[in-house]
C-alpha cells in the first residue's frame, strides 16, 4: 500500500532544508522498495519544528521534526512509515499542544492539504463559501461580512463589511478588488503562509468580494521578497481558471471574476493602500491624500475594495458558516480569530490562530515558551515597525484592537516580536527612525526630514551630549511627526520610539 | 535562476534585454514595474538606457520612468557581483542576532552592506523582512531563502556557492 508522507513546501520550511529532506525520503524509499508518495504541503505553522515531516499512518497523521536529511535513514529504520517511535517523533500532529489549543478557522486547511490540488481543496470544504455567495444577493453577502464583525487585518482594523458596503453602493462601469499582499511588517508571515499553503482560499475570498460589490477584476499586489508565494499563486490562478473557479463563468453561474498578479519592488510604504494603488498603476509609491477613499476612487480611479490577504482569507469561512458563527469568537469589538505570528527571539515561533483577546502573556510565554536564547524576555514589539514596544511586565494586556490601543500600542497585522534582555532599546528606537527615513515616500517633511533628524538626535542622546535638551527635542520631533504626517508611516514611527524611551529610559543613558 | 550578470556592461546585451522585456509586457496596464522587473531578471540591474526606451514604448515622460526606477529599492543601476546576498535587518532578525551575521560578513568575507567584494564575487544588500521571522536571522542568496543564518551557516552557504561556480 502507498504511504503518503508530507514535507512542507512553505518557504520557512525550505529555508531550513525541507527540499533536501524530501529528496532524501524519495531516495531512501526507492532504495528500500517502500511505496511512498511525497506530498509537498503547506506548513502547520510550528516553525521551530521545521522541517516537520508527517506520515499518514493508519491511526492518523504522525509528526516528526525537526528532520535533517541525515535523520532520514534512521526514520525508515524506526518504521516511521507506520508511525514508529523515534527521537524526533512528536506524536499525532493534531494533538501537539501548540496546535491543539488553536482555533483554526482561516488556517483550517493550511498544512493539511496539497496547496495546488483542486480536488484536495474541494474535499476539505473549499468553495463552500463561494457557492453560498453565488446564491445570495450582493447586499446579503455584505451583510454576512458586517455581521461577522471582521475588521481589516492589514493594520488599520477598519470593518470589512462597511468598506464593502461603500463600494457596493457606488455606481460605476468598473470596480476592483485589490489585495494587499505587501506584508511588510517585520514579524509577520501569515499572508505568506496562506498564499503558499492554501492559495485557492485567497482566490475564493477575492471572488466573494467581487460578487459582493460588483467587481469583476481582482488585482493582487505581492511583495517581491516572496518568490515562492509568487510561484504558487501563478500556478493557482492558472489552475483555478482552467477549472472554472475564476473567469467568465464562475462555477457555471454565468458570473465573471478574474485575477491578475503584480509584484512590488522592495518598498515598505507601498503597503499603505493608496501607495499600493499608485504602484499597481506603475508609478512611484507616493501616498495619496484621502479623501477620496479608495472605496470611492481607487485603482484606475474606480471604486475599489482594498483588503489585506488575511481579511479576504477569513471571508470564505464566514460565508460558509454565517457571520454570527465568526462573531461568536473574540471579545468586545474585536470579533473572530487572529492568526498571530510569534517571531524573533522566541522558543516556539510560528503561526498561532486564536480568538482575539488572548493575552500577550499567553501567546509569548505559554504558547511561545519564552525566548529561544533561554534568557528573560525584556520587550516585545506588537504590530510591526510602527507598533510600540512593551516591557515584559506589561504582557497581561489582551491582544485585541481596543486593549492594545489602550495600552498605547496597536495590533497591526498580529506580529509579535520577542527580544531578550540583551536588547539595546535605544538602538531599536534609533532603528525605527532610520527605517522611516529609508522607507518614507517623501511627500511630507516631518516624515522625510524628521526621521533623519530623529536618528541624529538619538545618537546625541546616547552619546551623552546635552541629554535633557535632546530628549526634549526628540519628544517635540515625535509630536510633529504624529500631528503633521499624511499617513501612518510618519504618524506612527513615534510609537516605537517613545515607548522604548518610556519603558526603557536606562538604555538611553548608558554614557 | 536568471543568468548570472557579468561585471562589465555590454550595450548590445542591454539593448536586447530591454527590447525583450518591453515586448513581453507593454500590453499590460501599468506596465512600467513589470518591465523594470523583467529587465533586472535578465541583466541583474536596470541600465540607464532602459528609461528612454520604456518612456517611448509606454508614452510616458522620461522623468516619470526615471522616478519609478529610482523610487524602488529593488532596482539596481549597476551590475551586482556574481552572487547576491540579501540580509534581513528588520526587527525580528535583529532580535535573533542579524547584526552578528552582518559583522561577520564584513570581517570574514570583506562584504559590507550595499557593497560588492573586490573580486566581484559577492554583493551584499540589506532587506527589510523576508517573512521568515521565526527562523531568523534570514538571508536570501541568489533568490533562495535561508533561515538560521548564523555566521557558520553563512560560511557554509558561500562555500557551496563558490563550489557550484567552480563546477
Ligand atoms: C506604511 C504603511 C504600511 C502598510 N503596510 C501594509 C501591508 O504590508 N499590508 C497590508 O495589508 N496593509 C498595510 N498597511 C495598511 C493599509 O494601508 C490598509 O489599511 C489595508 O491594506 C486595508 O486592508 P484591510 O482593511 O483588509 O486591513 C500599511 C499602512 C501603512 C501606513
Ligand atoms: S507620512 Fe511619510 S510615508 Fe506617509 S505620506 Fe508622508 S512622507 Fe509619505
Describe what this molecule looks like in 3D.
The complex is a heterodimer of chains A (511) and B (167). Chain A has 21 helices and 16 strands. By secondary structure, chain A is an alpha/beta fold. Chain A has four domains: 3-100, Glutaredoxin, CATH 3.40.30.10; 118-327, 3-Layer(aba) Sandwich (Rossmann fold); 330-420, Ubiquitin-like (UB roll) (Roll), CATH 3.10.20.600; 425-508, NADH-ubiquinone oxidoreductase 51kDa subunit, iron-sulphur binding domain (de novo design (two linked rop proteins)). In chain A, strands 2-1-3-4-5 form a five-stranded mixed β-sheet, with helices on one face. In chain A, a hairpin with a 2-residue loop joins strand 3 (53-57) and strand 4 (60-64). In chain A, helix 7 packs antiparallel against helix 8 and helix 7 (138-148) crosses helix 10. The radius of gyration of chain A is 23 Å and the shape is globular. The model of chain A has no long low-confidence stretch (mean pLDDT 97). Chain B has a five-stranded mixed β-sheet, with no helix packed on it. The longest helix of chain B has 16 residues, at 151-166. Chain B is an alpha+beta fold and 167 residues long. In chain B, 48% of the residues lie in helices and 12% in strands. In chain B, a hairpin with a 5-residue loop joins strand 2 (115-116) and strand 3. Chain B has helices at residues 11-25, 32-43, 49-58, 62-71, 91-95, 98-109, 151-166; strands at 83-88, 115-116, 122-127, 139-141, 144-146. In chain B, helix 1 packs antiparallel against helix 2, helix 1 packs parallel to helix 3 (49-58) and helix 3 (49-58) packs across helix 4. Chain B contains seven helices and five strands; from the N terminus they run H-H-H-H-E-H-H-E-E-E-E-H. Chain B has two domains: 11-71, no CATH class; 83-166, Glutaredoxin, CATH 3.40.30. Classes of the chains: A alpha/beta (511), B alpha+beta (167). Chains A and B meet through helix 1, strand 12, strand 16 and helix 17 of A and helix 2, helix 4 and helix 5 of B. The complex binds flavin mononucleotide and iron/sulfur cluster. Iron/sulfur cluster binds at residues 269, 287, 440-444, 447-448, 485-487, 489-490 of chain A.
Amino acid at each position: 500500500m502507498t504511504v503518503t508522507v508530507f514535507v512542507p513546501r512553505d518557504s520557512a520550511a525550505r529555508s531550513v532544508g525541507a527540499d533536501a529532506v524530501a529528496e532524501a525520503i524519495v531516495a531512501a524509499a526507492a532504495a528500500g522498495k517502500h511505496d511512498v508518495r511525497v506530498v509537498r504541503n503547506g506548513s502547520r505553522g510550528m516553525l521551530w519544528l521545521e522541517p516537520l515531516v508527517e506520515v499518514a499512518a493508519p491511526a492518523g497523521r504522525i509528526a516528526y521534526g525537526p528532520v535533517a536529511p541525515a535523520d532520514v535513514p534512521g526514520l525508515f529504520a524506526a518504521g516511521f512509515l507506520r508511525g514508529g517511535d523515534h527521537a524526533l517523533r512528536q506524536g499525532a500532529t493534531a494533538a501537539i499542544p501548540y496546535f491543539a489549543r488553536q482555533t483554526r478557522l482561516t488556517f483550517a486547511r493550511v498544512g493539511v492539504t496539497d496547496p495546488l490540488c483542486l480536488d484536495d481543496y474541494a474535499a476539505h470544504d473549499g468553495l463552500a463559501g463561494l457557492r453560498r455567495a453565488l446564491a445570495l444577493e450582493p447586499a446579503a453577502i455584505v451583510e454576512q461580512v458586517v455581521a461577522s464583525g471582521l475588521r481589516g487585518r492589514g493594520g488599520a482594523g477598519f470593518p470589512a463589511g462597511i468598506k464593502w458596503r461603500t463600494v457596493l453602493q457606488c455606481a460605476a462601469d468598473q470596480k476592483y478588488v485589490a489585495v494587499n499582499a505587501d506584508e511588510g511588517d517585520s514579524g509577520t508571515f501569515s499572508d505568506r503562509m496562506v498564499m503558499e499553503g492554501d492559495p485557492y482560499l485567497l482566490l475564493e475570498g477575492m471572488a466573494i468580494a467581487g460578487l459582493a460589490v460588483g467587481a469583476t477584476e481582482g488585482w493582487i499586489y505581492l511583495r517581491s521578497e516572496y518568490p515562492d508565494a509568487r510561484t504558487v499563486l501563478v500556478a493557482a490562478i492558472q489552475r483555478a481558471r482552467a477549472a472554472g473557479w475564476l473567469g467568465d463563468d464562475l462555477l457555471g453561474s454565468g458570473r465573471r471574476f478574474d485575477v491578475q498578479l503584480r509584484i512590488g519592488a522592495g518598498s515598505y510604504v507601498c503597503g499603505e493602500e493608496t501607495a499600493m494603488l499608485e504602484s499597481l498603476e506603475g508609478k512611484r509609491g507616493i501616498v495619496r491624500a484621502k479623501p477620496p477613499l479608495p472605496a470611492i476612487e481607487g485603482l484606475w480611479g474606480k471604486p475599489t475594495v482594498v483588503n489585506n490577504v488575511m481579511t479576504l482569507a477569513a471571508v470564505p469561512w464566514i460565508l460558509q458558516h454565517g457571520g454570527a458563527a465568526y462573531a461568536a469568537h473574540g471579545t468586545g469589538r474585536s470579533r473572530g480569530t487572529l492568526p498571530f505570528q510569534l517571531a524573533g527571539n522566541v522558543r516556539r515561533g510560528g503561526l498561532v490562530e486564536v480568538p482575539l483577546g488572548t493575552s500577550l502573556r499567553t501567546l509569548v510565554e505559554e504558547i511561545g515558551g519564552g525566548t529561544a536564547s533561554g534568557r528573560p524576555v525584556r520587550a516585545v514589539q506588537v504590530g510591526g515597525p510602527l507598533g510600540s514596544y512593551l516591557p515584559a511586565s506589561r504582557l497581561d494586556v489582551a491582544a485585541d484592537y481596543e486593549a492594545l490601543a489602550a495600552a498605547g500600542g496597536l495590533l497591526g497585522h498580529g506580529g509579535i516580536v520577542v527580544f531578550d534582555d540583551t536588547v539595546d532599546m535605544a538602538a531599536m528606537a534609533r532603528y525605527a527612525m532610520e527605517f522611516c527615513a529609508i522607507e518614507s515616500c517623501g511627500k511630507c517633511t516631518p516624515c522625510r526630514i524628521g526621521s533623519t533628524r530623529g536618528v541624529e538626535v538619538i545618537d546625541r542622546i546616547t552619546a551623552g551630549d546635552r541629554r535633557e535638551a535632546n530628549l526634549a527635542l526628540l519628544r517635540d520631533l515625535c509630536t510633529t511627526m504624529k500631528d503633521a504626517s499624511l499617513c501612518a508611516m510618519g504618524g506612527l514611527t513615534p510609537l516605537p520610539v517613545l515607548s522604548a524611551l518610556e519603558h526603557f529610559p536606562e538604555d538611553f543613558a548608558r554614557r | 535562476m536568471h543568468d548570472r550578470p557579468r561585471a562589465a556592461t555590454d550595450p548590445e546585451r542591454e539593448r536586447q534585454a530591454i527590447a525583450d522585456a518591453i515586448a513581453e509586457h507593454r500590453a499590460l496596464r501599468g506596465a512600467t514595474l513589470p518591465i523594470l522587473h523583467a529587465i533586472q531578471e535578465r541583466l541583474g540591474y536596470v541600465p540607464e538606457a532602459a528609461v528612454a526606451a520604456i518612456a517611448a514604448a509606454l508614452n510616458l515622460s522620461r522623468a516619470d520612468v526615471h522616478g519609478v526606477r529610482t523610487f524602488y529599492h529593488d532596482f539596481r543601476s549597476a551590475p551586482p557581483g556574481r552572487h547576491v546576498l540579501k540580509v534581513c535587518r528588520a526587527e525580528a532578525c535583529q532580535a535573533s542576532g542579524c547584526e552578528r551575521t552582518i559583522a561577520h560578513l564584513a570581517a570574514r568575507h570583506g562584504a559590507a552592506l550595499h557593497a560588492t567584494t573586490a573580486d566581484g564575487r559577492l554583493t551584499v544588500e540589506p532587506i527589510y523582512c523576508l517573512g521568515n521571522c521565526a527562523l531568523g536571522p534570514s538571508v536570501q542568496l541568489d533568490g533562495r531563502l535561508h533561515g538560521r543564518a548564523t555566521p557558520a551557516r553563512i560560511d557554509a552557504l558561500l562555500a557551496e556557492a563558490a563550489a557550484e561556480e567552480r563546477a
